[in-house]
Specification:
- This protein has a domain of 130 residues: Rossmann fold, CATH 3.40.50.300.
- The chain starts with a strand and ends with a helix.
- It is of the alpha/beta class.
- Helix 3 packs parallel to helix 6.
- The protein is 37% helix and 28% strand.
- Bound molecules: adenosine-5'-triphosphate and magnesium ion (MG).
- Adenosine-5'-triphosphate binds next to strand 2 and helix 1.
Length: 234
């Protein structure tokens, strides 16, 4: 089954077009699909369109078999598409546990069970469960953002630059966590760490200037001239 099916997508901010004729596919059998590309390529814009925050001017977006291009974002979450945004969007004055509760609005009946699963994955969050989110370190906040995403029991979990602003060792931990999550949930991974994102990916897309320049398996992209010349060093 195709979990996400995007075809001929154009997206504008006012008069400014930033995505051009984007087509991509995320299948149920994919563990990780990575979308890589430089600053300003349109990666966040694409994820925001998939999660219903932005409305496309042309083209179609199907999530879990249904057209969502005119569906509000909380309904898209309910259908199983959840995004961990770049800004993490935590509620800083609420506790760790309360933030997890916010993530479970579509699956309230499973709150305790899912919270315990998140605490098992990130024991440090259990230690801090009563602390306000804003008192957490950057790495812990990223764990909380991921945990909150999992509380909705997604079929597809999309990450927007999850390693952003983290020290290399923490970034590596985040990639390992994403790999673990991808055993159960299909992951869309937007990253500027191109090598790491493509190593994890079954399939990948290179987005440049609002257009898909290259696509293929993670291994094919790592060997492609476009990626080697533009994005990999050494
Ligand atoms: N709210 C907005 N209004 C107008 N233009 C915007 C807005 N948000 C983004 N843009 C523009 O759209 C283009 C794509 O931006 P986007 O944030 O999607 O890129 P990105 O690939 O996520 O970049 P980054 O790697 O820096 O996160 C850029 O030229 C950006 O300046
Ligand atoms: Mg971005």
């Amino acid at each position: 089954m195709t979990l996400v099916d995007v075809s001929g997508l154009d997206v504008h901010y006012g008069d400014l077009q930033v995505l051009w004729d984007i087509s991509l596919e995320v299948r149920e059998e994919d563990s990780v699909v990575s979308i890589v590309g430089p600053n300003g390529a349109g990666k966040t814009t694409l994820l925001k369109t998939l999660s219903g925050i932005l409305t496309p001017t042309n083209g179609s977006v199907e999530v879990l078999g249904q057209d969502v291009s005119r569906v509000p974002s909380d309904e898209i979450v309910e259908r199983g598409f959840v995004q961990v945004s770049e800004e993490r969007n935590l509620f800083g004055d609420l506790s760790v546990e309360a933030n997890l509760r916010m993530g479970s609005f579509t699956k309230r009946e499973n709150f305790a069970e899912n919270r315990d699963m998140v605490f098992e994955m990130f024991p440090v969050l259990e230690d801090r469960r009563d602390k306000n989110a804003r008192t957490l370190s950057g790495g812990e906040q990223q764990m909380l953002a991921i945990g909150r995403g999992l509380m909705a029991e997604p079929e597809v979990l999309a990450f927007d630059e999850p390693s952003n602003a983290l020290a290399p060792q923490l970034a590596e931990q985040v990639f390992e966590t994403i790999e673990e999550i991808s055993d159960d949930v299909t992951v869309i991974l937007v990253e500027q760490h191109v090598d790491r994102a493509l190593q994890l990916a079954d399939r990948g897309y290179l987005l440049e200037n609002g257009r898909i320049e290259t696509e293929g398996s993670g291994a094919e992209l790592l060997e492609s001239d476009a990626i080697k010349e533009g994005y990999l060093r050494g």
